[in-house]
Write a structure and sequence with these properties.
There is one protein chain. The C terminus is likely disordered. The longest helix is centred in the C-terminal third of the chain and has 16 residues. The chain is built from 4 helices and 11 strands; from the N terminus they run E-H-E-E-E-E-H-E-H-E-E-E-E-E-H. Strand 9 and strand 10 form a beta hairpin. Strands 10-9-8-7-11 form a 5-stranded antiparallel β-sheet, with no helix packed on it. Strands 2-5-1-6 form a 4-stranded antiparallel β-sheet. It is an alpha+beta fold.
Length: about 190
């Protein structure tokens, strides 16, 4: 079996803030196949309201090119870097986003939250509560734990109502030291 080199694969390109449309236009002018999914957002200023077009992936554009020929990409105005030139984006992921854009399905950017991430609920009856996000059979749940008694409960949450928690590094280190110390203590009967 012969391995095919990265011939015309999709890659993510990081660009300077608010340079997405310019960099995409320049890459298109250079003959590259670029993809910059966008959405319309209504903005209100003190004197007017306007609908503007914004990138769905702020700070990134997607481009199909041969990974061995990077110079025309990285010398494009606004381009910071190719995110990982050794790791192309699967065509299926780009095709899915292209299908959503082509069908004009309303889409907006949101935080990427992996299952297992510590999150805080920002809306609904659990607003302000934080825990670990888990998913079981397409149902998102928040795990809340009492460390001292080493027990947890889970409650159903809406994925749209959670955001990642930025932990204070001092608290995370202290908690890790407490947990490590507790695991080393012998169990009392």
């Amino acid at each position: 079996m012969e391995l095919v080199p990265f011939d015309k694969c999709w890659f993510a390109i990081q660009v300077r803030p608010r340079y997405e449309f310019l960099a995409a236009c320049i890459l298109r002018g250079k003959g590259f196949e670029e993809f910059l999914p966008s959405y319309k957002s209504k903005r209100k200023w003190s004197d007017r309201k306007k609908e503007i077009e914004l990138p769905l992936f702020p700070g990134y554009i997607f481009c199909r090119f041969n990974a061995e020929i990077r110079a025309p990409i990285v010398t494009t105005p606004g381009v910071i870097r190719i995110v990982d030139p050794n790791w192309p984006i699967p065509d299926s992921e780009i095709e899915t986003i292209q299908a959503i854009v082509a069908r004009r399905v309303p889409a907006t950017p949101c935080s990427y939250i992996k299952v297992g991430t510590r999150v805080e609920v920002i809306a609904g009856p659990l607003a302000g509560v934080s825990g670990i996000l888990v998913c079981n059979k397409n149902q998102y749940r928040l795990i809340l734990s009492v460390t001292l008694v080493q027990n947890s409960i889970s409650v159903e949450v809406d994925y749209a109502d959670v955001r990642p928690v930025r932990e204070n590094p001092h608290h995370a280190i202290a908690a890790e030291q407490r947990n490590t110390g507790r695991e080393m203590m012998p169990a009392m009967a």
